[in-house]
Amino acid sequence: MSMFRTISTIATAIACTALTSCGTATQAVSQPTTRISTAYELPGDRVYPEGIAVDPRTGDTYVGSYTNGAVYRATPGAARAEIFLPEGADGRKTANGLKVDAAGRLWVIDSTAGVAVYDIGSRALIARFEVTGTGPRLVNDLAITPDGSAYLTDSLRPVVYRVTPEQVTAAHGGKADLTAQFDLSTIISPHAPDAFTLNGIVSDDSGRYLLIVDMNSGDLYRVATAPNSPEPIRKVSMRGADLKHGDGLELHGSTLWAAQNTSNTITRWKISDDGATVELERTVTDESLRIPTTLVRSNDRTLVVSSQFDRGGPMGPGTPSMPFAVLTIDGI
Q1: Are 130 and 163 within 8 A, CB to CB?
Q2: In terms of C-beta density within 10 A (0-12 exposed, 13-18 middle, 19 or more buried), how is residue 31 classed?
Q3: In the prediction, which pLDDT does 13 show?
C-alpha cells in the first residue's frame, strides 16, 4: 500500500464498462457478473483511507487514514464505521498497513516512522517499533506469520523488516528499533532512486514463505522465512499479466488477490509450485473503485479500500466524492 509523489496515468483504453469484469484471453467469453457496492461508510471529509484488516475472532474490520492517522472500526453489518483510534494519537502521522494478530492485537503502520501495536480490548498502546536513522523511508504494509512474527515492507528501501513476539514482549510499553530481516536490493528490477517499489506482502498459511509485490516493475517475489534456505529470495513466474501498480495483497490457500491502485483494478491469481508460479484467473477493472489501495476477504466477501487519493489527497488536486467508503465486490 502506498501513495505516489505524482499520480500515475490511469489507463483509459479499458475494455470494460461500468460494473462489468474483464477476462483474459484464455478465459471463456462468459464471465460471472461483477457487482460493486458500498460495504460501509467512513466518517470525515479528509479520511483518504489506505489500509484494512479483519479481526477473525469477531469479524470486525479496521481501516486506517493515510492523511490523519485515525483508525476506524466497523462491526459486521454496520452501515458506518466508528472512530477506534483518533487522528494523531500516539504521534501517528499516517495509518496505512494494518493487521490483527492471533493474540488480539492491532498493528498499525505509520509510514513515516514504523509500526505501533495496540491491545484491541483496551485500545492501549503496547509497543512501538521505529526505523532508525534519518534516511528516506516509507514503511508500507505487513504480514503476520503463524509464529506471531510480523514482516513489513518499505517502499523506499529494498528491505523487509521483522518483529518477533519476543521483541513485542521486551518492548512492552516502550519503543524499540525496527530492524531489517531481508535485503532484496540484488534482485529487484532497476528503478529510479526515488521510485516506490516494495509494497503489499502476504504469508502462506504455514508461514514458510512471503509473497511481496514490487509496484514499480509489477514483479512478485517469494521470500523464504526459514533461515539458511537454499533459495531465500526468488522472482515468481507470472502467467497472464503482471502486478504493475500492485498495492495490497490478500492470500487464502492457493488464491491470491491484488489491488492495483491507479489502474483501478482487482486481480485474482492461482498459486502453484509452492509459491514459485502464479497464474491470472480473473480481472475486474472499474473507475468506481477510485484508486483501490488494498483489500481483505471477510465472511466470503471481498472488501476493497477506495482511497480517492487522486481527489484532493496525496496523489493530486480535486474534491473527493462523499462519503469515503469501503466497497464490496461480488464476482472476484
Answers
A1: no
A2: middle
A3: 33
